[in-house]
Design a protein that fits this description.
Blueprint lengths: L1 H42 L3 H10 L8 H11 L3 H21 L3 H17 L7 H13 L1 H4 L4 H8 L2 H8 L5
Helix pairs in contact: 1-4, 1-6, 2-3, 2-4, 4-5, 5-6, 8-9
Length: 171
């Protein structure tokens, strides 16, 4: 019996530590996204900022052709829409990650958003850290959501109801 305990104890400690670390990474990523949104909202981010990105796309030597086409064909004509929704998008990502709701989709969309920002050559110092945090969450989403609202709901509600409420396996 004591040999069995000695094998389980380190595994339990490692798993518990992983839950805390990945939960903290999820919350930290969420806080960083909320911070990005607040900066943009306070600065009056809008269509003019999107227009700057669109105007720079054809001249940028580090901007992929696919993003150039997207910027000119989609972002340019819809600059007011993108200008209004980018800070709200970042805020939504942050809130979802902090709360631990839809952790896997939020982390995937976070990574996609960072790739889009990098493609537009709009890199800030915090984006690499955000990418690393997002990769950890993408690799172990169920561990990262352990201390979130989705997990709380799934343990407090009957299985079928909790899955329907928080999006089933994608929660």
């Amino acid at each position: 019996m004591s040999a069995q305990r000695s094998v389980r104890r380190p595994r339990t400690v490692i798993l518990g530590t992983a839950r805390v670390v990945l939960g903290a990474a999820r919350v930290a990523l969420g806080i960083l996204w909320v911070g990005e949104a607040i900066v943009k909202l306070r600065a009056g981010f809008g269509a003019a900022d999107i227009a700057l990105v669109v105007d720079a796309a054809p001249r940028g030597t580090r901007i992929p052709e696919g993003f150039r086409l997207f910027a000119e064909g989609v972002m340019g004509p819809l600059a007011p829409l993108f200008g209004a929704t980018v800070p709200l998008w970042e805020l939504a990502l942050g809130v979802l990650l902090i709360a631990g709701v839809a952790t896997l989709p939020a982390a995937a969309l976070s990574s996609f958003t960072l790739v889009l920002y990098w493609s537009s050559d709009q890199l800030t110092a915090v984006y690499p850290l955000m990418a690393v945090l997002g990769v950890g969450i993408l690799l172990w989403p169920s561990t990262a959501r352990r201390y979130g609202v989705s997990r709380l709901l799934s343990t407090r509600m009957p299985r079928r109801g909790a899955r329907a409420l928080v999006g089933g396996r994608w929660a």
